[in-house]
Amino acid sequence: MSEGLTESEKFVNSISERAFLHLWTHPNPIGKKGKELCDCLIVCGNHIVIISVKDIKYKDTGDEAGWKRWTKAAIDKSASQIWGAERWLDSSVEFTRHDGRKVELPPKENRIVHRISVSLGAQRKIPTKSGDLGNGIVHVCDEFSLGAIFGLLDTITDFVSFLTEVEALINRANIVFNGGGIEDLLAIYLLNNHSFPYDEADLIIIEDTVFRGFIDSDDYKAIQESYKDSYFWDKLIEHFVGDLLTDGMFEYGTNQVTDNQLALVQMALQPRGHRANLVDAFSEFLQKPELKIAARVILAYKNTAFVFHLGPSSDREARVQELGLRCLVVRGRLPDVKIVVGISRDKLGPSEVGYSHDIAYVEIPEWNDDFEEQVTKIQKELGYFENTSCTKRPENA
Fold this sequence. Notes:
Blueprint: H1 7-20, E1 25-27, E2 40-44, E3 47-55, H2 64-90, E4 94-96, E5 102-104, E6 112-120, E7 131-132, E8 137-141, H3 146-152, H4 156-172, E9 174-178, H5 182-191, E10 203-207, H6 210-215, H7 218-226, H8 231-245, H9 260-268, H10 272-287, E11 295-299, E12 304-310, H11 316-333, E13 339-345, E14 357-363, H12 369-382, E15 388-391
Parallel strand pairs: 3-6, 6-8, 9-10, 11-15, 12-13
Antiparallel strand pairs: 1-2, 2-3, 4-5, 7-8, 11-12, 13-14
């Protein structure tokens, strides 16, 4: 993690990395003429989140002068930095991290940009403005909402889904926080199955007791309990990220770094609820050898399929090849699935050569007769689909 320029930036960078993981969190990236682009940039899939941090102590002057002075320094300047970063990114296909590593940006036509101003120092002595501040919607977090937003929305998909719903709400209604902030809006969103019950409202007044009531509720405790095991998925991603960033993922034969980052992106795009389902399925597959299946398929978020496979580390080349073939067969036999990610590891128990993981990535948007013939041949010769179990995701995941 970058050291950052201030203690506030260090804190924001650390909670961003914890929520969105190291591969997609970029503290203090470099922009125009070698200058800092913004305080933190998150890039995952088609999503770009631009974060600017301002920590300005509020000085109460007894009139509106202090209020306006703080707002200009903490929110307006933050929004200006965000819009400047967005303009630079609009003309760029990549950027350079603070540590010198270059990162490719998603295609311009597919980018979805979200703007976060972390404006600290007022301690809610004055109301903070949020919404369209002149050049697009900016979400404003303060000391009280920062931990709630990044803590409860700790996957990129959960995070940007909330921001998208808030942006849609702002575009159709005037939102007034009565002493609270965006964390109260988050509680309403979570309590209403990731949506807002305000389809017809023009004015919405949000009380400052909503979030406090939510975190004391049985609903919150149930959510946290259901997600408890899902963090193994995060650890698995970080394990692969460590290999990727140290050039540890190579294609057998050519010794070239593969596009396994695409597989990791699909893993990272899984929302927290889907991660819990994936971990449960993976754990059951590992711990129940009596099922006598060679692989297990899980249908996850956005019709991405995950193939779990067991194979010995003693012959990783054969294991990787088999994993790729299994992924190809799954793509051919599940027509709604365009992307398949395979994860292979050793069986539980003793191993003479140690333990390892491998991943595979198959993306075929359009299927044709040549692929069909190839898959049919593989399936007939190797039986890769018959000895594979398939589990759909829960409807409420």
